């Protein structure tokens, strides 16, 4: 059943006159009659009663008319939404990002971009690194701000975060200017759950340092880790915080290893073309990050 034939049927049902409907649609009467015959054949029922060479919509036709109008409206709505999505000025950007970027980096980018493109809409999802990669893989996200770099995706590094060891204020390591992670061997660790990018980096750093830390609690967000460190539950590998976002009850001791850093970047599929609005946002993010350096 073609959309054109449904639209023809609606006009015919409203006029109940083949000649008038054909003239309104700009098709020949035989073409319209054949289209009606095909519809009736597919449905297995007549849609009009023929009385004195006139058409009168019957009960079957009333049912089809109701659904045809609804279907045409839905297709029209879908067409309008697709057009909006493909408009760089009014489209929608589906952006996934790490929990740790939700408090300052992503909101600041969005604020600045919306000043430039106020009509672009956003579908936002925050989550762990493995969730973000799944969102990119299944097409639920156009772009992702994540770490570490996911394999098989286009990537643009945005900035580096140095990693440190967060310890309670009265901890034996709190007075150090810099430490090796091996110095924390035997300490209880608070970490993110497996699947988070920072947990992956922490595990790699611990392996590099030759230690197998006892993880006493697995958190879902970095502020939770820092709060538990301040409460004396253990130590934690975290990014060096911005001064205004540091946990007052914790001390952040820089790690000496050159590999103790986290690269944040913008990732997107190498197999799918970005919608125009998403491409516009990606260009903006890359440009802003370059200009901020």
Automatic annotation (TrEMBL):
The record's listing under PROSITE patterns reads: HTH_LYSR
Q: Where is the HTH lysR-type domain?
A: 1-58
Q: Name one Pfam family in it.
A: LysR_substrate
Alphabetized UniProt keyword annotations: Activator, DNA-binding, Transcription, Transcription regulation
User: Which superkingdom does the taxonomy of this entry point to?
Assistant: Bacteria
Q: Which Gene3D superfamilies match?
A: 3.40.190.290, Winged helix-like DNA-binding domain superfamily/Winged helix DNA-binding domain (1.10.10.10)
List the InterPro entries hit by this protein, alphabetically.
LysR_HTH_N, LysR_subst-bd, WH-like_DNA-bd_sf, WH_DNA-bd_sf
**Similarity comment text for this entry:** Belongs to the LysR transcriptional regulatory family.
- In Swiss-Prot or TrEMBL terms, this protein is called LysR family transcriptional regulator
């Amino acid at each position: 059943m073609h959309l054109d034939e449904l639209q023809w049927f609606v006009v015919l049902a409203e006029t109940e006159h083949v000649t008038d409907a054909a003239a309104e649609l700009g098709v020949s009467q035989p073409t319209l009659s054949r289209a009606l015959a095909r519809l009736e054949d597919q449905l297995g029922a007549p849609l009009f009663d023929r009385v004195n060479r006139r058409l009168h919509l019957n009960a079957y036709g009333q049912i089809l008319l109701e659904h045809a109008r609804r279907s045409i409206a839905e297709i029209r709505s879908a067409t309008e939404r697709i057009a909006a999505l493909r408009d760089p000025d009014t489209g929608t950007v589906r952006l996934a990002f790490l929990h740790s970027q939700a408090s300052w980096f992503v909101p600041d980018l969005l604020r600045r971009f919306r000043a430039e493109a106020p009509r672009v809409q956003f579908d936002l999802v925050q989550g762990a690194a493995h969730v973000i990669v799944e969102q990119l893989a299944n097409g639920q996200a156009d772009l992702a701000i994540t770490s570490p770099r996911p394999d098989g995706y286009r990537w643009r590094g945005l900035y580096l975060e140095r990693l440190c060891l967060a310890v309670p204020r009265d901890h034996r390591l709190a007075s150090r200017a810099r430490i090796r992670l091996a110095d924390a061997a035997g300490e209880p660790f608070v970490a993110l759950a497996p699947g988070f990018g920072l947990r992956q980096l922490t595990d790699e750093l611990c392996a590099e340092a030759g230690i197998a830390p006892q993880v006493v609690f697995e958190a879902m967000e970095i502020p939770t880790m820092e709060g538990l460190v301040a409460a004396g539950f253990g130590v934690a590998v975290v990014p060096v915080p911005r001064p205004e976002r540091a946990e007052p009850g914790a001390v952040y001791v820089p790690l000496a290893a050159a590999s103790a850093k986290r690269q944040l970047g913008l990732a997107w599929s190498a197999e799918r073309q970005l919608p125009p609005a998403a491409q516009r946002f990606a260009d903006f993010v890359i440009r802003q990050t370059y200009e901020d350096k």
